[in-house]
Amino acid sequence: DATDAPGRFRGPLDVLHDIFGYQAFRPGQSEIIDLLCGGTSTLAVMPTGAGKSLCYQIPAILSERATVVISPLVALIDDQAAALRANGVNVAAIHSGLSRERNVEEWRDFAAGRSKLLYLSPERLMTPRMLAAMGRIGPGLFVIDEAHCISKWGPSFRPEYEQLAALGQHFPNATIAAFTATADSATRVDIADKLFHGHGRTIVHGFDRPNLQLGVQPKTNWRRQLMEFLNGKEGLSGIVYCLSRRLTEEVADYLCEEGVKAIAYHAGQPSDQRRESQDRFMSEDGVVMVATIAFGMGIDKPDIRFVCHLNLPGSMEAYYQEIGRAGRDGQPAETLMLYGLDDIRMQRQFIENDGEDGEHKLREHKRLDALLAYCEASGCRRQSLLAYFDDTTGPCGNCDNCLHPPKVVDGTGEARALFQAIAATGQFFGASHIIDILRGGETQKISERGHDKLDVFGIGKARPKDFWQGFIRQAVSGGYLVINIQKYGCLELTPRADAVMAGQEIFAIREEALMPRAKSKRGGE
Ligand code: ADP
Ligand code: ZN
């Protein structure tokens, strides 16, 4: 029995070969393993599929002391335990899905040292009885999976995780390993503070997926943009993500008319229909799933060749996870995200409506800002994506900005006109009315309010509506304007806009975003 022979392995690489049957470590793995074997508490941030489990399983196998793995999901515990047992490692697991008798048996195995690893849910560990019993065993390593659940800063806070902050006091001689796939830097600092109280390391690794081509475009005409993206991808599998169920149906219908084998997928469909769609996607070539984010969890198809977002994703983390479903086999895969002003307004609305406290809302708005900044980036997309996760790379040569560097032009004159129109109307109106003013429109709203008497009325007539929409989108993404959801989506000026109006700052803008290739019917009138 492998686990009964401490000293049988000379080091981590032996365990990797002999127990797991793998040739080499992946980036980050051996560094984390060395830290844990050396007794340094470590927070490891690695994307899903990067191979986090080995990072604690190998130290657990090499250690003479016991290891406790805290994991929130019963299904996850069962998978992990089964995989280890299949490799000849004895493990115990205690959770609510097992009978009382079985749990007692599992505990006995662990307490007697027959299993050196115990999987446990957090609420089971933090009871006085369990803590006392655990104290007699004296585990050398505590592993906290899905560690972002400990942080109120993260997207999936769990109160039962918060108690884990006391782990260090209960077991001062144990090493703590925390793992997560989704944690921005504020969340990470919070996790490390709570668990390590200033001691311990944070390692970020493996976010780079060089085979994924990254692309973002402002949404001008999604039908044309989508067809252009799908051009040459006949026979390949892919996902098109939409925000609403209704849009998945509309897009799938449209694609079918265009001869693409598209299937709509959303949580409003009967479960057998969804299962059938999934089966087709897995087994047939060239199926395009047009889906809400309900699709993808647990889908393990290695040869998904493209992912297209027709709406702005919910966050940078969500975006990363969703595009990450493509190219799991390491072969080239393409991604495209389309985003428009409506998307920005909608995401802000979601944040406002989610019923959380003000501080939480503010953080969520900031997270959305980070995504918008990524959309408007004029440098390498991969660099800005990885920078969000504190990972780094050189310019990638495989994103839209690397392949076709965007031209940046001075838009200060137009920006001043726009900001003045907003200021002169009391920062009280949304994009379409402001554009009507700039273009000298003859709407009832304009005449009723006397906005045709303003200095800026008609000042932007030479530019089509598309132009101004793109311009406002960039001004919002660049932090010059905010869309105030509490006031019906009206546009408000930020200090950066004031600086442009005062002549202290120039307004640089991506030229191509202002001159969309696909002109709308009203464009150029
Ligand atoms: P995560 O927990 O980070 O989502 P897992 O630990 O489940 O990822 O690992 C994902 C897959 O990669 C598993 O099938 C695992 O066996 C495999 N894997 C992990 N490390 C290696 C390695 N060094 N070489 C080859 N495969 C590995
Ligand atoms: Zn790049």
TrEMBL record:
Keywords linked to the UniProt accession: ATP-binding, DNA damage, DNA recombination, DNA repair, DNA-binding, Helicase, Hydrolase, Isomerase, Metal-binding, Nucleotide-binding, Zinc
Q: Which Gene Ontology terms describe the biological processes this protein takes part in?
A: DNA recombination; DNA repair; DNA replication; SOS response
Catalytically driven reaction(s): Couples ATP hydrolysis with the unwinding of duplex DNA by translocating in the 3'-5' direction
Question: What does UniProt give as GO cellular component?
Answer: bacterial nucleoid; cytoplasm; replisome
Q: What's one GO MF term for it?
A: four-way junction helicase activity
Cofactors required: Mg(2+); Zn(2+)
| Protein name, per record | DNA helicase RecQ
Q: Which organism is it from?
A: Breoghania corrubedonensis
Taxonomic lineage of the native organism: Bacteria, Pseudomonadati, Pseudomonadota, Alphaproteobacteria, Hyphomicrobiales
